[in-house]
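Now for a specimen:

…
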Amino acid sequence: MRKLVATALCLAATATATGCGATVEKPADAKTSAVTLTNCGREVTFDKVPERVVTNDVGITELMFALGLEGRMAGFAMPDDKGDLSGVPWKDGYDKVKWLSKDQLTKENVLDARADLVFAGWNYGFREDGGFTPDALKKLGIPSYVLTESCHNGRTESSRGIMPPLDALYTDLTNLGKLFGVEKRAATLVAGFKKQVAQVRAQAPAAGDRPKVFLYDSGQDQPFTSGRYAAPEQIISEAGGVNVMHDVQDSWTTVGWESVVQRDPDVIVICDYGDVSAEQKKKFLLSYAPLRSVSAVKHERIFVLDYVDLVESPRNPSAIARLGTYLRTVVEER
């Protein structure tokens, strides 16, 4: 999470809160009547407006901050390998809300926080192993909301993603706006994001000139990457590229290096997080013998985005803009 261009992010977060000088909508009273939402294809009814929300991971946490809902939060869980938080537009939210765990949410820290809503996702906190699931929390009397990017789609036991990634982002902002009584703020955010993305799309290369892009998250024996239902799919396509793993009907998943070589990407985007730095990942990619013939490696066309740019989050539109600028330079140089 390196420091981003402040003006671009402030524009993207116009309705979020105090940092950008916006007039914010007052959240609904906690005694407001029940709200029914569609979440992962199921109707879910919340009896009241949550007052002690806990979130898992950076993108999910920043969705709450972007809507100005830090006052409704009891805490968040997030590994501390996700970067420097000092330059983010929602720094006040991080300063105000308790950091419950530098690992992930558990039943214990959720109960300790007296949570009345858990906002997480499959592989973003929710997991069958360990029994931290919406059903398990329901038995404890704690409602859940599942990040739409992570919804199981039924193609395999673990496959995720039920709609295009930006639609997932807009769906969650709209649902949260309704749940917390900040519909106007949510609508303003969504409209601003759509406008920002449309501006990048208008400058994108013609269909036949679009660079092929491979998203590299991690892994040496096999690469972990993005199929069509994770945020990088639309970050790449809206920026003016083509995700070489578009045909993989999953969100984040593992593929084989041979499929990367066969698809010959023009650009590799590195997801920067964790103990292995972006520079170390780049060094591996450029030195890995099976990739020598790949265009991106031959021409050293490697672009880095942060983890929070590449999971569902309010930073997705800014990532699209930055990648779009880079892809246009690639087209001009070819």
Observations:
- The first strand starts at residue 35 and ends at 39.
